[in-house]
Amino acid sequence: MGSDEKKAPRRVRLDHRQVRVLAHPLRTRLLGALRVKGPATATTLAELLDTNTGATSYHLRQLAEVGLVAEEPDRGTGRQRWWRAAHDVTSWENTDFDDDPDARAAVEWIQSEQVRLFVEHAERWFAARDQWPPAWRDAFGMGDAFMTIPSSRLAALSAEVWQILERYRAEADPGEPGAEQVQIFLAAFPLMLGSRR
């Protein structure tokens, strides 16, 4: 592949079994670490996530059973096993699991964990932002917008924003001077003032 060619992100739309397996604090952190840091051993991940190698190995195997992580046999030596994220992007629709209360509960946990992590990241940023250069302090941040829109147009808006994010991800060059890893959260919720209707 030439230097100008970028691989399309590997995607998975979670099925019922995958979502139930992923709904675990260490498993979501393991998958996230493999996506951000790249392939790693259970020992490396245990050190990174401040846990023990036994737990890390067990939960990596659970993720592998449902195809969310994969072993890299060419990198391992002896008992050392290397793991990688099987996909770059995980998705689902909220209605995918309407017929499965356990999977629906798992999705609700994953989404609650995403919100918790967002708050944790925001608080860490607020505590450290004065240490960053002005250009980064101006580039980082958050905002909101209010609009009245039907569900079909909101879905189209979300898809368009994701296309923009994917284009920027495809164009990203980790070796570019001044480049930093950033995390972008995208959310849309109803404006819940008073009763629904």
Mean pLDDT: 89
CATH topology name of one domain, in short, is Arc Repressor Mutant, subunit A
Give the CATH class of one domain.
Answer: Mainly Alpha
Give the helix tally: 7
Specify the biggest β-sheet.
Answer: 3 strands, antiparallel
With strands numbered from the N-terminus, the spatial order across the biggest sheet is: 2-4-3
Q: What is the number of beta strands?
A: 5
Question: What do these coordinates show?
Answer:
The chain is mainly α and 197 residues long. Helix content is 48%, strand content 8%. The longest helix has 28 residues, at 101-128. The chain has seven helices and five strands; from the N terminus they run βααβααβββααα. It has a domain at 11-132: Winged helix-like DNA-binding domain superfamily/Winged helix DNA-binding domain (Arc Repressor Mutant, subunit A, Orthogonal Bundle), CATH 1.10.10.10. The strands form two sheets. A three-stranded antiparallel β-sheet has the order 2-4-3.
